[in-house]
Amino acid sequence: MPLPIYQVDAFTDRPFAGNPAAVCLLPAPREEAFLQAVAREMNLAETAFLVRRNGATPADGDTDGWDLRWFTPTVEVALCGHATLASAHVLWQAGELGAGETARFHTRSGLLTAEQRGDWIVLDFPAEPPEAVPEPPPVLLAALGAEPLWVGRNRFDYLVELPSEAAVRALAPDLRALKTLPVRGVIATARAEAPPFDFVSRFFAPAAGVDEDPVTGSAHCCLGPFWRDRLGKDDLLARQVSERGGTVRVGVRGKRVELGGQAVTVLTGELAD
Question: N vs C: which end of the chain shows fewer Cβ within 10 Å?
């Protein structure tokens, strides 16, 4: 039986910008080898797989919502923002959720939710603040080819603050060297040069099979707390300045982060099963 699959550009309000994700709706769980093969075939930063819970009885007692997993072309990841945004967008568009109904996702990073606020989708994600790294690995600094103002790390990534937006935009890192670091990826960031944005960033994850991610929702779980502390404001507007580019509204709410974005479906089809 063919499986419905969608390609959605996330964190953008127009096609062919933001971060493309594939979203596949499954009638039942599938083996990991199949999921990884589909993600490799789609060859996007992430492919999301959704399975409705249908009254199962998990240990946490929460039987509603959807089980959600994310795969790059090479690995399964523990947290992904843009593919979660794309998944919620598809569920509303396909009529799997009613307008205004909250999307509930059960993931390797716990329960994540998404809700509609006007033309925007707002995700509720865990905050992942960085801790300072007093002596950054020499390979990190050499691979970036830039002098940082500050370097930190959370459980996923290194965070590198650079002196200017221009420095972030000019980065041309040694991806082969970055791939040797024991992290998912490297976030480069700086204050934005002009309104309306508060800060900019780029994200490199060659170890996860993604040389540069166009717009990385999960990186903003780190960037939000970081810039909240520096700018003294809980609500921030961010721009990821990759070639495709994308906009993220970030709201720091204690140990949680709200990530707001828009999404556009660019392709619908069926996956041969």
Answer: N
